[in-house]
Design brief:
Structural class: alpha+beta
Shape: elongated
Oligomer: single chain
Length: 1618
Amino acid sequence: MLESYVTPILMSYVNRYIKNLKPSDLQLSLWGGDVVLSKLELKLDVLEQELKLPFTFLSGHIHELRIHVPWTKLGSEPVVITINTMECILKLKDGAQQEDHESCGSSSTNRSTTESIKSAVKPRRVQQSASPDSDLPPGYVQSLIRRVVNNVNIVINNLILKYVEDDIVLSVNITSAECYTVDEFWDRAFMDISATDLVLRKMINFSDCTVCLDKRNASGKIEFYQEPLLYKCSFKTRMHFTYDNLNSKMPSIIKIHTLVESLKLSISDQQLPMFIRVMQLGIALYYGEIGNFKDGEGEDLICHTKDILGNITGTEDETSSVMQHSTHYINQDPYLHQDDDQQQGWVSWAWSLVPAIVSYDDEENDSSGTDDGTMLHQQKSQSLKDPVISIGFYCTKATVTFKLTEMQAESSYYSPQKVKSKEVICWEQEGTTVEVLMKGELFFDCQIGFVGCQAICLKGIMGIKDFEDNVSRSDEEAYFFNCGENLSAKGMTYLTNSLFDYRSPENNSIRAEFILDAAHHKEMYTEVAGMQRFGAFYMDYLYTMESTSSKVSGNQQDLSSVKSEEFGNVQEMSTKNLIVGPLNLRLDSSAVHRIMKMIVCALEHEYEPYSRTNPDIMDGNRTMPSSEEVVSLEEYIPTRLTTFTVLKCTIIIPVAEFNLLDHLMPVIMGEKNLSGLLNAASFQPLRPLPSIRILVDKVNLEYSMPMYAEQLVHVVSNLSQPSDNLLHYCYSHCYLKIFGFQAALTSLDNKGLYCMPVSVIPSFSTAVYGKQIKFPKYWTKRARVPLTECIFELPNLTIQATRAQTLLLQTIYQSWCHPVGNVSSVVVNEALLNEVFQTSGVKSKNPLPTLEGSIQNVELKYCGTSLVKCASGTVGSIKICAKAPGDGGKEKLIPLIQGPSDTRDLHSSKWLNESRKPESLLAPDLVAFTIQIPQYMDYCHNSGAVLLSSIQGLAINVDPVLYSWLIYQPQKRASRHIQQQSVGTVPLGVSVTRKKEDEASVGSAPLARQQSNQASEYASSPVKTKTVTESRPLSLPVKTMLNSSESCRSPEERMKEFIGIVWNAVKCLTLQLEVQSCCVFFPNESLPSPSTIVSGDIPGTVRSWYHGQASMPGTLVVCLPQIKIMSAGHKHMEPLQEIPFVVLRPILEEGDAFPWTISLHHFSIYTLLGQQMTLNLVEPMGCTSTLAVTSQKLLASGPESRHSFVVCLHVDLESLEIKCSNPQMQLLYELAEITSKVWNKVQRKGILYQSSVYTETMTGPVPPSSPVKSSIGTAPPDTSTYSPSADIGTTTEGDSLQGGDDSPFSDSITLEQTTSNIGVSSGRVSLWMQWMLPKITIKLFAPDPRNNGTEVCVVSELEDLSASVDMQDVYTKIKCKIESFNIDHYRNSFGEDSWSLGQYGGVFLSCTDKLNRRTLLVRPISKQDPFSNFSGFFPSTTAKLLDGSHQQHGFLSLTYTKAVTKNVRHKLISRNERRTFHKLSEGHTDGSPHFLHEILLSAQAFDVVLCFPLLNAIASIFQARLSRSQKEKRKSPGQPMRTHALTSRNLPLIYINTGVIRVFFPKNEEDHHTTEANPAIKEDTLVLKIGSVSMAPQADNPLSRAVLRKDIYHAGVSGRKE
C-alpha cells in the first residue's frame, strides 16, 4: 500500500529529467528497495524550460543514480537518494535563442493565459479544501509519508558544473554534498514534527568545493591550467523550519544559515580579467541587462524569476509564492551581496523538494484548471500567511591572494609549458556575516558585516624584491591596510542569533522574535549597534512597502509594474546604510605598485560589454498627466537612499622608496607603454622614512534617487509648471560631508615607530552637494531646469608650515611624480629631517618662522542647463601671517596678507593721523563672482557669456620675515643619498628564467614564450608585448622631433595663439569687474602685530607702529588703483546672482560688448619714515581708458580659418606728480638690495634643485621650424636679407650704392615710412594703443650743499605727453611726443612754507625763449666762425627724412620702429654680393625671424643752464649709503664679465635732428667778490651754442647729382643689370 503512494512521487522526478528511461524497470527496481541507474542523460530542454535561466545546457549527464528505499523501516530509516558524478556544461544564451517573456502581471494570470507553458510543464496545486477527498490515504498513512519526506537524505558525489564563454572556462567541482535531518543538537537523527515541538531541522554538508578559472585557446583547448580560485573548501548549512501547527503545509519561520570556517581565494594575473568578467556577468544578470531584459524592463525579469522558482518547486502553493516573493525582492533592488544570492539559489532548490513531494497530486487533478478569480482569491488568502525567511552566510576567515605568473619551460624546447606563480598581495578578512530577513512583499532586510580585515604585501614586485625572504623586514611593515578589530579579541559576535550561536533562541528551544517594522528596525540597528557587533564594516539594507489603499492585496502586482497613477496606493521605501570602521592605510611604494599592477592586469582584456546603453527613446506623442496623478505624486514618491560613512580614517603617504609608475600609468590611462626597459634593483628600505599623515574623523556620503525614475520623469516633464517638490524628486542627490580632516608630517624610524606628527593642516570640515537630473533627454526643451548642480562649502581652512616642512613635502611629491630613470634615487636630507622633526624638550638654535594662511567662508555653486553653464561663489576672507621667534622666547605674529581690508582711504597718508575703525566682522566677502557661458560657444542665440565680479580691498605686507622663510636651505653636508644599484637592464618582454636560453639560441624561441619580464610579471597578451618591444625604437625619434619643432615656435607665435584663445573667450562677453584698492607695504624691518589690535589687521599694525614709542622701520607703501571695467551698454548688477540668470542686454553678435570702459583711481606711492614722517613718491592719480576689439575672418591658409584682430586701447591719464628725496631713495635702495639678494638665492637654489632631481638630456641639432609660421601670407625669407646691411646698404656695398632710385641721396625712405604703407589685412593680430598725459611733474628735494639750513627743489614739467603703439604682424611702431619740457629749481629755508626761485632765474632747462631777453653776447657776431652755418647750404638727409616723418608741433618727437627683415624693401644687390652676405649670415639661419630696428628723434631748440652745485645736490639724492658688509662684498674679486663685441649689426638705425641747443655755464655766486674788485671784467657766463645735431645711418654725399631725364637713367640702370 505504501508503495502505491511513494513510488509515483519518486518516479515523477526521475522520469521528468532523465532521457530514455522505462518506468516499468524503475518501478520494479524501486519495489526491490534499491534502484541503480547508470550513464543517464538529462533532458536538457526540460531543464532549460523549467529553469528559464539565460543559460543553455551544452551537455548534462549523471554517471550513476542510486535510490534506496527501506520499505521495512520507513518509519525509522531515511530514504537515501545518491547521485554519483553529475556533470553539466552551460553557456550564455545567444540573443536569438532568448525567449520572449510575458509582461509581468500576477503569476496566476501568466499561467492561465499561456498554453505553451502549461503543456511543457504541468503545474501542480496544493489542495486548499479542508475536507479530505475520497482518494486521500488514511491519516496515519499521510503522517507516515510526511515522516518519510521530512527525513529524505540526498547525497551528491562529485558534482561538476562548467560554464564556458569566449576564452573563459569556469568550473565548480564539489566532491560530496549531503542533506539530512538532525535533532536539536544538530546531530544526524530521524525526526518528525510533533505537537510539542513544531520544528524541523536539516543539515547540508558540502565537502571539498573547488572552483577553477582557466583560459582556453581558439580551438577550445586549455593549454595550461591555472591554480584553482578556491581549493577544497568545505562548509555546512543548517536549516530550521518552524510550523504553526501539525497540519501546516508551509513553515511560518524559515532559517537557513551557512558557515565556512576558512575561505581561501587565489587569483592570478591571467585569471583577474576573467574573474572580473564573471562578476560582470553576475551583475548583468542581476540588473536584467542580458537578453531582452534591458533598459527598464524589470517587470520581465521579476516575472521570469518567479517562473524559475515556481517550476523548480513544481507547485503553486504557499511555498511557490514565498520563494517568488523573496526572489522578487532580491531582484528588484540590485544592491545585495552575491554570496547571499548564491545561497538563496542553492537553498531554495534543495529545500523546495520537501513540500513539492508532499503536495503532489495526480495528473487528473492538474488538468482541472481554476479561473482567474479563484486563483486571485487564493493569493489573497496566502498573503496572510507569508513566512518569515532568514538566510545567513557566515565565514570565520577569508583570504584573497593575488599572484603574478610567469612561463617556465623544461630543458627540452618541445616540453610542455609550466606556470610559476608568485604571491604579491593578500587580503585577509575575519568574521564575515551576510544575513537576509524577509516577510512577503512588505519587508526585506539584508545585513552584511565583518569584524576585521587587512591587506599584506608579499614577495617582490616588478623586480624590486622588497618583501622577499632574504630582506629582513618586520611583519608590521607588510601590512599596509587594516580595519576593524581582531576576531580573538572581539569574540564570536558575528554569529549572534545565528543557528551556529549556542545562545540563539532556536538552539534553546525558544521561538524567535523578529523585527518586521521599519521604525523599530531603525531604532534597533543603528550605526553604534552595527559597529559594536562587527567593527570593520557594516551594511544594513532595508526595503519596506506599506499599502495605503484597500485595493492593494498582499500579493499585488509586481512593484516594477506599478505605474505612475498607482504611486499613491503603495508607499515603498529603500534605505541602505554602509559604515566602515576605523581604518589605517599606508600608501607606500610597495602597496601602490601592487595595486597599480592589479589594475593593469585587470585592464588587459578586450571583452565585449554585456549591455550597451541605448539612447533614450523619446515618445512622439506625450500625453499630459491628469490632475489625480499629479496629486498622488505630490503625496508620496518612493526613493532609494544610500548612506556611506567612514569613521576615523588614517592615511599615510610616505616618500616613494622606488617609483616605476611610468611603466604602469600609461597602460591605465589607455596609452601604450613605451618605456620598454626595466632596471632590476636591489631594494634597501629607507629609514627614517618621511611621510604625510592624513586623519579624517568622519566621512559621510548620502545618495538618493527616485525608485521609478523613468515613469516619474516622463510624468513630470510633461507638466507645464511642475512644482519644486516634484522637480526635487526628478534628480539624484548626493551629499558629501567631511569632518575633522587634518594633515601632518611624520617619520618612520628604524624601530618601526612613527615620531610625533608635525601639523601642516589643522582640523577642518567641508561639504559638497550635487544633484543630476534623471533622463536629461526629456528636459532639453526646458531651458530653465538645471540638469546638474553642485554646491561646495568650506567654512575654514588653515595651512601652516615652515620652509623646511614645505621642502620635505616637495621631496615627497617629487618622489612620486618625477621618477628619475627607471628606479627612483631617493635623496633625504638628514638636516632637513632634524629641522622638521625636532626632539621633544630640546630647543633649536635658530627656530624657523612659520607661515600660516587661512581662508574662510568659501561657497561655490555650479549649475548647468541645456543652454548655459554658470557658476557663482564667494570667498569670505583670506589671512596669511608669519609666526617668528621673538624676544624673550615669545612668539611674534607678523601679518602678511589681509582681505577684506578697508583700503578706501589708504591712497593718502592722512589715514595715519585720523581715527580708524577696526575691521568689522560684518565686512563684505572678499570675492564675489558670477559667470555664465553658453554650453556651445557657437550657439549664442540666447545670450553670450557674462562675468560679474567684485573684489574687496586687500592689504599686503611684504615683510622681511617672508624673505627669511624663502631663503632657508638645509645643510648639504649632512645629506644622505641612497642610490639604488641596478643589477642590469633587461627588456620588459624577456624573463630572467629564459635569459640564458635566449642567449644560447637567439631567435629560436617563439615570441609567445617570452611573456614575462624579469620580475615575473605575466604579460597576458603576447601581441601587446610584441608591440611594445618593436615599436619603441621607431617611436622615440618621432616624439623627439615633434617636441623639438614645438619648442622652436617663437614667443610671438605663442602670443598670437594666446590672443586667439582669449578672443574666443571675450568676443561675446559681458564684463563687469570691480576691484577695490590693494595696498602693499614694504617695510625694511619686521612689523609684528601688537597685542592691542585685532590679530592680522595690517593697516592697524602699521598705524600703531607709526604712533608708537619705538622708531618705525622705513616702509614703502604702494597703493594699487581701484579698477572698474564695464562692457558697452551694460547696466550695473549685483555681482552675486542666483544662477542661472537672465541678462537685460544679451550679447548676440561678436564684438557687441565692446568697447570696454576701464577706469582706475587712487594709485599712489608714499614712504613712511621714522619720527612720524610721511613722504609721497607718486601723488594719487588715475586714468580712464577705452578698449575696443574688432575681428574679421581671413582666408583660410590651412585646414582651419583664422581671425584678424584689431585691438585699440585709448588711455586718458590724470596729471602725474612724482616727488623724491634722498631718504626715500635710500629706502628704495635697501628694499631693492634685499629683494635682489632673495631673488638670486631662490633662483640659484631652484637651479641646483632641478639639476639634482632631473636628469640632463642631450639634445641634437634643432630642426628649423617652418618659416611660414612667423607671418601669414608672406613669402619665405631670402637668406640674403638676414643681414641688416643687406637690406639697408652700407659703405661695404661698393658701387651698388649709386644705382637707381634706391640711392639714399636720390629718394631715401626710412623704415617708418616703409611700414606705414603695410596694410592691416596681412597680419593676424594688430594692436593700437594711445596714451594721453596732460602733465608730468617731477620734484626732487635735496639740502643745499653750500648753504646749511636751505633746501633745493628741482621741478621738471612735461606737458601734453602723448604716446602711441602700433603693433602688426610684421612691424612694431612706437611714437612719443612731448609738447614742452622745462626744469626749474627753487630754494627755501627749513621750516618755511614759501619757495623762491633759485639762482639764474631758477632755470635749468627751458624749451621756451625765457633766457633770450636776459642774455648779452660779449663778442660781436663778426668774430664768430664763418662756417658756423655751413649746414644751411647743405641740408642733411636726416633733416629731410625727419621732416617727412614728423610733423613738428612740440618740443620732442620720437619714433621707434621694429620690422621683420623680409618685409623691408630690398636693395639692388648683385648675386655675387648676395652670396657673400649669405655666407656672412649663415650663423643666423635657424628659421627664426630677424628684425630691423630704427629710431627717429627730432627736438626743438632748448637752453640748458649748468649749475654744478645744483647738479651736485641732485646727484646727492640718488646716492645711497652702503653698509660695511655690502662694501666688502663689492670689493671682492668676481668672475670676469663677458664682453660682447659692438658692431653695426647690433645697433639700430638712428636718425637724429635737433634745433639750436644753447648750454650756459654760469660763474659760482661765491666768486662774486672777485668780480666786483675788477669791474672791467663783466663776462661771468660761458655759452655753448650748437646750431643743430643731425645723425643718419649712412653718410651724406656732398656731390649728389640731380637726375634730369629719369627715363634715360632707368634704361641705363636696367641695361647695366643685364
